Amino acid sequence: MRTKRLLRAGLMGGLVLAGWLAEARTIVLDARQLERAAGLEASAPRHGWAMTREGTHSWANVIHAGLLDLTRGRCFLFAFSLADIPKGHRITHAELVLPISTWWGTEPRFYLWRVLAEWGHGVCWDYRLVGDKRLEWTRPGAAGMGSDRAARPTAIVRLTEAGSVVINVTEDLDLWQRGAAAQQGWLLSVEDPDVTIRFPSPLYNEASSWKLRISFEPEAMP
Amino acid sequence: MKRGGKRQRNLPWLAALWLVGTAVVWGQTPTDEGMVTMKVGPDEEWLRPGVSAVTAIARDGTKIPATVVGVDEASNRVVRFQRHAEETWYWLYDPEMEPDVSDQELLGRLQDAVDVAFYVRMKQTDTAVPPESPAWIPGYRVRYRVRLIGDYLSSPTETVIVRLPTGGWLKPDGTDVLVTTAVGRRRPAIVLSHDPQGDTLVQFRRHEGERWYWVYASNPEATEVDPALLQRIADARKAAEETALRKMAALKVAGERVGIYRNKALAIEKERDTEKRAQQERAEWLKLLPERETAVSNAAARVAAAKDKAEKTAAELAPLQKPANEKTARAVEIEKQVAAARQALTEAATAVEAAKQQGDQAAVAAAENARASAEKKLTAAEEAAKAAQEEAQAARIAAEPALRAQADAQKELADAEAAQTGARNAVAEAQMRITELEGMISKAQAAAAALAPEIEPLQKAAEEAQAAADRAAAEAAAAEQTHLKLALEADPRLHQEGLTVEFREWAGDDLGRWAAVVEGLQQSSNIVGSAIARQVLHVGNPFQPSSPRRFAASYRGFLQIDTPGVYSFFVNSDDAAFLFINQYKVYSRAGFNRPITGVHNIYAVGADIQLEAGVYPFEVHHVVGNTPDGQGLCALAWLRPGSKQWEFVPPTAFRHAAIGAVTAVEAWDGGPLAVFDYGVDDAFTADGLTLYLVRFEAQHGGIVSDHVEWSFGDGARRRGASATHLYVRPGDVTVTLKSHPKMPAFQRRCHIWAPPTPSSPHSLARAVSVLNQTDLSALGRLLLDDMYHFLLICGQPERWPAMERVCRELLKDAKLDVAYRADVRASLMEAMARQGRGREALAELDAALAEMKGVRSAEAQVLMGAANVAWNSLRDLAAAEGFYARVIRENERARLPLVRRAAVAWADMYLEAGDTAKAAATYRLAAGLGRGGPGGERLTDAVTRGALLRVAEQQLKSGNPRQSLRLLRRIEEEFPEQKMEGLYRFLRAEADRIGGRYDAAVRNYEAVLEMRQWAGYQPAALAGLADTYRRMGDEKQALEWYRRTAESFPAFFEERQLSNTVALLENQLARREAQGEGATNTPPVWTPFAGYMQDFEGLAGQTNRLGRAYLLPAMGLVGPHVAFVDAQSGTGVEWDLDGLKLHLQNILGGGKVWLEFWYRDTAGISPEIQPRVRAWMATLAPGAHPNHATDAREVRLEPTFGRWRKVATRLNLPQTQDAVAKIVLAELAGLYEVDGVSVRPITDREEDAFLTFVEGVDPQ
């Protein structure tokens, strides 16, 4: 009897574990889930360039199928759609994979910031939204720490070797998933002088597209 | 009294005096109080140094013994004597030369001498102390005390330009300004440029040699110019015009009358001239006539002789000529016969041939015979002809001489007859001309006689008219002079002096043509700054240097043209520029342009104009539009007549005014009144946030009360005479200073920007100090965000009060991002704990957790803050353990970097507590927790770990501790368990020692010494410990550790040459002990070099120590004294700041100092000269040469257009006990003010904190 009870309990536990394992999974978001992307340029403060598939922009960086040179006075905004993360799940791990083409500068650094302010149509260095009513960044270039962007960078990445960079963004995803902060994506910036970091366009191709790898599990699990 | 009169020669013992600027400043020194030094011209040879017993005499007769102290490089005699009260006039005399002159007589003679302009030029004393202030002019509420700067006495200028700080006090047009001398004599003045939020440029007329002036301002009732004066000017102008008209009328009458007289006089003159010339000619003819008559007689005699000769020769020829002619005729006849015989022969030969053809032999024979006969006849004839010819020839030869003589005689006769005819004709001609001339003479005499009676009245009338015209002209000139004199009373610009520039924000939108630019300039009323200029040259907007776009600059001045000719002018600029000379547009460069660079044809640019010698008013208008990459260059160049090279129009081509400096500002009621100036002290950037530290100094000419109130334009307010404020945004901000209860606050537009000056490691502490004093409640969220970030990363130990206040302000915002809120909560707890309120800080935890809305990462952040407080502040290990454990427990399934950091911090805590076992276990735990970085587990192998350590070691050995530290941080992040290892601890100790974290360094060194397996690092650890204590200033401990190093590892000690350091420390210790450390009744003399601040206030009264500069009371940026350097000659004056040779004692051997000072120039720009600063350091070790630099830096001085700028540089200290820092300013041009010279040591901690700050919140 005791053995049966133990077996039944073990079976139930196994079922629950199996169910949990079935629920705990990892998804990879890439260009197909990139819902917003834009570049901001200090020297053209009211000139927004959206990173859209359809975009055929005349800016030096060809967004659709080109390369993005990140340098001081220029930053990139991007946001993935998180609709594929089911509700009631919590983030256990999230990594942002950014391919780097090349760079100029000695062990240059770039910053990844969680964006706080809403941004969208017509976003540019001065404005975060352009429509009937223009909304400015609190500081041009989304530079307001604590208002435009998070007070603390998600990561400061120093480049020492070639290849993709993997950034732990678990905390940001956790905030968004819990609804503690609105999901406005991230901002890439370079804050040091004489540094240029070249990224392939997030829409460039499958192999070198930017990726967001998210692991999550049901909230109720141990 | 006249100026510049000639010296009387009958008083050789009396010399006029020339009081010299810098010399009198010497007189202000405590030892030489009241002494006057004068320079007397080189021709006063009776003043012999050391010999002459000279006496100076003041105007009231007071005699003062004087000494001829020497002769300067210009052979001037230098004389010194005690100043008599405030007297500015002195005479020198030698009492031995006329000992019998009584005092009364002497004084009388002197006074008489003055009355007859006996003196070269008397000049007012140049003294730092102004004369007594004049009585206040009612209605005006502010007045400025202005001092002429530089060698103004030798300057031939008639006017002065001064920049007055008037922000907010003047009428909108700035016209309520009035200038007087010390005795209240009003001087004509005019406002050249008025910035309602800043300075006003005022030009006024000098009064002889006066150095001090008072400028009154702020009078709402004041009219632009005295109406009575204007009326007088109008009356004078009218009078001048009327007299000018009268003069013209008189000149016309005089002209007419003179014309009539002139014509009549000319007619008489003409007749007299005719007569005169005829007389002269007649006399000549009369003189010539006898000669010609003689010639006729001579010719007749010659003809007669020639005739005789001709007849004689003809007779001689006749007998010879006839036979010659006959024989010749016969020869001719015979010749004819020969011809006939020859014809006959020819015919006979022809007959022979004919017969032969016919074949008739008989005929042939007959013909042959005939031919032979003909031949014979011919031969005979020819012989006869020959004989006849010879005979004829002989006859002709015989007649030839006679024939030739006869021909000659005939020719001679012909010549004589021709000469006779010519002579007769000449005589006839002369006689005829004489007759004609006599007729002319008679006629001219008759005509002149007829005109003579008319001329006298005409002459008299003309002379009367001319005299009337001269009188009218004199009256007109006097009236014009009167008008000009009065006009100068209203407008000193009529003196045609001064070059100024005014910068405005460009409000126009079209640069394509001048008319549009004019419209734009009219719209551009927002003046951002103005300055006294030296040349027409600028790059960018000096008043808004961070914004090179959209501004307009207008230069106004006067060109002095000495060489007439064709000049080419060219304004190189981006974008548009226009040059007007005498209001005529000479050069135009419209539209958006780039500066012209490179090699071009010399005539490819510019515009030509012919200029006569003289003074020309000119204007240059430069406009920069919204042009990307624009430099904002404007440079006026010219091609002088005959020159093949373009050059900047030099300063000498402009007529400059004297420069005045405001030395004090006063209120009408004696109340506290102050203005202020500012300078960007520093700007430093981290994580994209740039902070601007700006220094403000309230000024009124003395010590300003601390009750003045600042408003910094960003919501912050503060009290205090000197203030430093922290800005987070570049651009313009209006700052106000309230000092007087009844006056509006003084306001100034301040431009916040990042000057190209290296950031000071002391600035972080200053910024924190500023924040600690700032009322944060009025700051907006944006500012608070930036302040928080700054405080988070600045690493300054004094930041916690400000951090607490910033955090509390931020937490009031309910919309604060939750992660941000967690950070702020943690920071708040740490700030409270750091201020000794750990328990109170922990009490905040529950409230903080409640705000985190269940967000685990946020909760973890707060809990980590609590753990930090529990351990570091309260030393409550258990509580801290609990917090760390909770963070890890609640987040172990999430790979949050924060969780890993919590575990590492937990392990660090165990390690610090000495529980290495738990520390090791916890580090291992940390390694398995949510790791950040590439790939999570990718870099876990020991090879990478070891490699990182070795690279860190190499970086440290190669003198790159920052790189080493970064690698150590990466190791800590990725391989926390490595913190237990000896190599890591040694490297960390080294980094901590260099970074000024001495306690941590000592702990880590000691740990290494306890690890037997790391014995190889023990010598370095021992020496590191010793050096750590040396850096801490604990010589005894340092010497002890060096002793242990020497004992344990003598080879290492020898190799590192540590004995030198030991000797230095021993000396230092001996000095400390010898100089009274521990004495209770007197303050110790020995002071470790903990800071050396040298501003000019401490040097007041020691001006001579400043070399070629002179220290004067003025409104400086650091206290009420400024060092002035007059380099207006612009030839590269070198100012050796010898007086500020700063002796640095007890420098503990090595390290760095930060040297900085403020400067600003007036009219200081010159493209040919590159002003710069040389700062250097020398050792004062025994035997070392004091001028041998152990370290030197050179910094270029930028033109500031009157704005304060800072020069800063680092200098390495030598490895000695004492050193000296020295500053030299070189290649100056213009007038420079220097203030706030300081040299401060840079501590290891300050250096490290600053570098850490600049790197931002980089986790690696």
Beta-sheet strand percentage of chain B?
15-25%
Given the C-alpha coordinates, what overall shape of chain B results?
Answer: elongated
Mean pLDDT of chain B: 83
CATH topology of the largest domain in chain B: Helix Hairpins
Question: Could you describe the 3D structure shown?
Answer:
The complex is a heterodimer of chains A (222) and B (1260). Chain A is built from two helices and 15 strands. Chain A has 222 residues and is mainly β. In chain A, the strands form four sheets. A six-stranded antiparallel beta sheet of chain A has the order 3-2-5-13-8-11, with no helix packed on it. In chain A, a hairpin with a 5-residue loop joins β9 and β10. Chain A starts with a helix and ends with a strand. The model of chain A is unreliable at 52-65 (pLDDT under 50). Chain B is an alpha+beta fold. In chain B, strands 9-8-12-6-24-7-11-10 form an eight-stranded mixed beta sheet. Chain B has a six-stranded antiparallel beta sheet with strand order 14-13-16-21-18-19, with helices on one face. In chain B, strands 32, 33, 34, 37, 40 and 42 form a six-stranded antiparallel beta sheet that branches. The model of chain B is unreliable at 1-32, 113-126, 932-939, 1078-1086, 1090-1095 and 1099-1107 (pLDDT under 50). Classes of the chains: A mainly beta (222), B alpha+beta (1260). The A-B interface holds A 43, 90-93, 95, 109, 111, 114, 116, 138-139, 143-147, 150-153, 155-156, 158, 165-168, 170-171, 174-175, 178, 180-181, 189, 191, 217 and B 628, 685-689, 729, 781-782, 784-786, 788-789, 810, 816-820, 823-824, 853-858, 893-898, 930-936, 966, 1256-1260.
